Amino acid sequence: MPNKPRLGQNFLRDTPAIERIANALGDLGGETVVEIGPGQGAITGALAARAAHVIAIELDAILAGQLRAMFPPDRLTVIEADVLEVDFAAIAAKTGKRVAIVGNLPYYITSPILLKLAGSHAALDRAVLMVQREVADRIVAGPGSRDYGLLSVSVQMYGRVERLFTLPPSAFSPPPDVHSTVFRWRFAPRFAELGVEEEAFLQFARQVFAQKRKTLANNLRAAGFSPEAIPSALAVASIPPQARAEAISIEELARLWISLEKERAASLPEAASLDEKG
After folding, report:
1. pLDDT per position as a tens digit, 89-136
2. For residues 133, 87, 64 and 7, what is the CA-based torsion angle, rounded to 10 degrees?
3. Could you say which of 78, 127, 208, 244 would form a disulfide bridge with 101 (CB–CB 3.0 to 4.6 Å)?
4. Which residues of 176-194 are buried (b: 16+ CB within 10 A; e: fewer)?
5. What is the CATH number of domain 194-268?
6. With contact defined as beta carbons under 8 Å apart, do 165 and 181 qualify?
7. Would you list the domain boundaries of the chain?
């Protein structure tokens, strides 16, 4: 069957790699696994042999039909849809517990899918995902690495990530132009632990990583934070004045956000008082 490049389809053919991906999810006995982009069903078969049930999300109508013909309905349910439109909370509610995720993510929508999964974290237990190697480098990067940035923080705030292995183009048909890396993501959001508010902190992260070549202080000023509040907030968070965001850990960023929020809250009564006097 001809492949459809518009859907970013590169089918995994490496049998040992397929087994490693399925095994990386751990014991699947009694569990429901959701597979993103099953394609021609190579990983699907390994999952169906291990899990109680597999739910495959496949956008391509022809492939969806082939999958339904390959596996009995008591082993596989095919959802013919865009993964970005899928309600993972409804899937988890139907199964009665959080589900495991696996997928060879299309390169052209990797980031939107990762953000979709992060937003669905309450319904998800763990994921084993394959992405372009350079994207995986950014996902798992720690502070001080040139790959560390907004994507690193945005993913890691929702749980621990670990690189598992990398595959060459020859493992796929047709071979892509890049290497692919498999990583594992265990969903355990850190917002409450770090004392930060989810949406506000992620917006803050977007601001501090806006210009990676600029210092953290310069990015904060550009984002509208008070120039007077920034030095003291950096000091409270034990961050050097000339530090760049790529050198700052998630824990330090959380302390900085908390300090800036306290500075902002403290300035509100003063501003209100001046308004009343005016």
Report:
1. 999 999 999 999 999 998 889 999 999 999 999 999 999 999 999 999
2. -40
3. 127
4. beeebbbbbbebeebbeeb
5. 1.10.8.100
6. yes
7. 5-189, 194-268
